[in-house]
Amino acid sequence: MKKFILAILILTTFSFDTFKEDAFDVGEYFKFRIHYGIINAGYATLEIKDATINNKKVFHAVGRGYTTGMSKLFFKVEDIYESYFDKENGSPYRYIRKIDEGGYTKNQEGFFNQAENRILVKDYKRKTEKTLVTTDNVQDIVSSFYYLRNHPNIDKLKSGESIVIDMFFDDEITKFKLKYVGLQDITTKFGTVSTMVFKPSVQKGRVFKEEESLTLWITDDDNKVPIRIKADLAVGSIKADLDEYKGLKNPFKAKK
Questions:
Q1: Least CB-packed of 81, 90, 216, 220 within 10 Å?
Q2: Backbone angles phi, psi at 141, to 5 degrees
């Protein structure tokens, strides 16, 4: 189950139609603790840097997930997800996915051509490459996380409303649906935090109990930080809690 450490963290996001650079900037860093109750399973980190593609300054986001302690002995996870995306509209130019999940490995890179709605996918493990058709405003798994946080109408959502993103993942476009639940104050290591609660739809079956087995808590402030994620799995449940942060663009609001 720990193979979902970073994927759950990033996939449980939502997206909108516009992009503005208000919620984050270069230097932002998050570290999440993945745990079963009080038992640590591993950690996941997300950070954003500067980069240059075709003589243009872009954002370079890097996500890492890894198991620790006894969990590492039973099921070793070392995942890296990267994305290079536009600073003005959030469109991705390139993604990198290097994973090792209990012996299952993948080493893949994708190059987006947004003007032609195509992506060149290079699989370095299989030594293959192919060009696939995409949709307008498609995001990769990491760029979507940042794309979502800058929508100007996020605070106007009503309980029960759902939104959808086109996400490219595993060589196909996924329609990712997310339902807004409402506001909730939660207790964290940083104090009591006001959050917006969301329920992403997932595929019921081998891994998840129900279609709404994931719950996501986002800080109800200008940063829109994912501060907690809970996944009810076919066997037990797993949580990710924000453990460390730095470089936030806006003040972090918490009641001690």
A1: 220
A2: -65, -35
Question: Which 3-state string (H, E, C) describes the chain?
Answer: CHHHHHHHHHHCCCCCCCCCCCCCCCCCEEEEEEEECCEEEEEEEEEEEEEEECCEEEEEEEEEEEECHHHHHHCCEEEEEEEEEECCCCCEEEEEEEEEECCEEEEEEEEEECCCCEEEEEECCCCEEEEEECCCCCEECCHHHHHHCCCCCHHHCCCCCEEEEEEEECCEEEEEEEEEEEEEEEEECCEEEEEEEEEECCCECCCECCCCCEEEEEECCCCCCEEEEEEEECCCEEEEEEEEEECCCCCCCCEC
Chain-centre distance of CA 74, in angstroms? Answer: 25
- Tokens at 141, concatenated: 């798994």
- Strand pairing class (92-101; 214-219): unpaired
Task: Assess contact for 13 and 148: CB atoms under 8 A.
Answer: yes
Give the model's pLDDT for residue 52. Answer: 97
Report pTM.
Answer: 0.87
The pLDDT > 90 percentage for the chain reads: 58
